[in-house]
Specification:
Layout: H1 3-8, E1 19-21, E2 26-29, E3 34-39, E4 42-43, E5 51-52
Antiparallel strand pairs: 1-2, 2-3, 3-4, 3-5
C-alpha cells in the first residue's frame, strides 16, 4: 500500500485515521472497530463491506 495514499485516506464513517494491517491487507478504524478490506491493491472504503473487529 502506498504511504501517500495511507496519509490521505480516512474512515468514511468517523473521518478518523486508519491503521494499515499488512498481514490481513486491511485498513483498521479503531474508533468504529471496523476493518476495511484491500482487494487487488485497492482499498474498499464501504461500510457494508467492512468487517467488525473482535472485542478484546
Amino acid at each position: 500500500m502506498d504511504k501517500r495514499l495511507l496519509d490521505i485516506l480516512v474512515c468514511p464513517l468517523c473521518k478518523g485515521t486508519l491503521e494499515f494491517d499488512r498481514a490481513a491487507q486491511e485498513l483498521i478504524c479503531q474508533h468504529d472497530k471496523l476493518a476495511f478490506p484491500i482487494r487487488d491493491g485497492i482499498p474498499v472504503m464501504l461500510a457494508d463491506q467492512a468487517r467488525p473487529l473482535e472485542q478484546q
